[in-house]
Write a structure and sequence with these properties.
The chain is mainly alpha-helical and 279 residues long.
Length: 279
């Protein structure tokens, strides 16, 4: 089955309550965008007008830290809402966006699950990257000191395979992230994000679908960048709307990809009809 990209763009407006469902996301993102913009503006003004430029930076650093902490629960909810959409589209391709008032417990639950899973797998990814980075440095030192090769030759012999391995790790990291997200959305539980055999099976079965999804999302992101650049003077107003729309589009396309992958794995008949949410 092919991705219905046009459907991902239009399904938002097919919902009769699309404005009520998207407005909270836009408002929250707008609020944090405005605060961040005002904070950065204040830093720049203070650094020019103050005799001690470091003082505004210290205050700004503290405020930025508090802003990040405040944004964590917001990000949890936004992530949960996105996963919930993917979950609904997986169960029924004609589903509409979830209601904030009645569905928020499940949205928060999914958001927390995704946050925990991403945190654990993120730490694992950095450990792997650090391991390969250490191997690269060690190999460079061996080529330079033991084999007495020149800097250029040693660096070339390390960089070429390093770039190839780096790209492979990046693609693998994205595949694992999507497999974790999809499995959590499919089952509605946190443990499924760590069932390695299932994740491997998802990646092996749906590698092509995940790659297609990545390419489609990359193309959409490029268009979004163009729109953003053309409307840079309206940054505070356009960015929240654009970001919300991209979140909803990505969620719908992810749900479609889930349908494609899990149908190949013969999992759709058992899980698509599960009462994951309405208990």
């Amino acid at each position: 089955m092919r991705l219905d990209v046009s459907k991902a763009f239009t399904y938002v407006f097919e919902d009769k309550r699309w404005l009520q469902k998207t407005a909270p996301l836009v408002i929250v993102i707008f609020a944090f965008t405005a605060v961040r913009f005002a904070l950065n503006l204040g830093i720049n003004i203070s650094s020019f007008s103050s005799d001690d430029p470091s003082a505004p930076m210290i205050v700004a650093s503290g405020l930025s830290f508090l802003l990040i902490l405040a944004y964590i629960p917001v990000q949890i909810y936004i992530s949960g809402y996105s996963v919930r959409i993917s979950q609904l589209i997986y169960k029924n391709k004609d589903s509409v966006m979830p209601e904030h008032t009645s569905d928020y417990p499940n949205i928060l639950k999914l958001g927390i699950f995704v946050l925990v899973a991403n945190l654990v797998w993120g730490i694992a990814s950095w450990l792997v990257i650090g391991l390969f980075g250490g191997i690269g440095v060690g190999l460079f030192l061996i080529l330079k000191t033991v084999l007495d090769l020149s800097w250029g030759v040693s660096l070339t012999l390390v960089l070429i395979p390093g770039i190839i391995i780096g790209i492979a790790l990046l693609l693998l990291s994205y595949a694992v992230h999507m497999a974790v997200l999809m499995n959590i959305a499919r089952t509605g539980d946190l443990v499924s994000g760590f069932r390695v055999p299932e994740l491997i099976n998802i990646i092996r079965t749906g590698a092509g679908d995940i790659l297609v999804l990545a390419l489609v999302l990359f193309g959409i992101a490029l268009v979004a960048v163009v729109v953003f650049v053309l409307t840079i003077c309206l940054f505070i107003f356009v960015q929240p709307v654009l970001q919300t729309y991209l979140i909803l589009i990505t969620a719908h396309l992810t749900g479609q990809t889930m349908r494609n992958i899990f149908s190949k794995m013969n999992l759709d008949d058992d899980t698509r009809n599960m009462e994951i949410v309405e208990r």
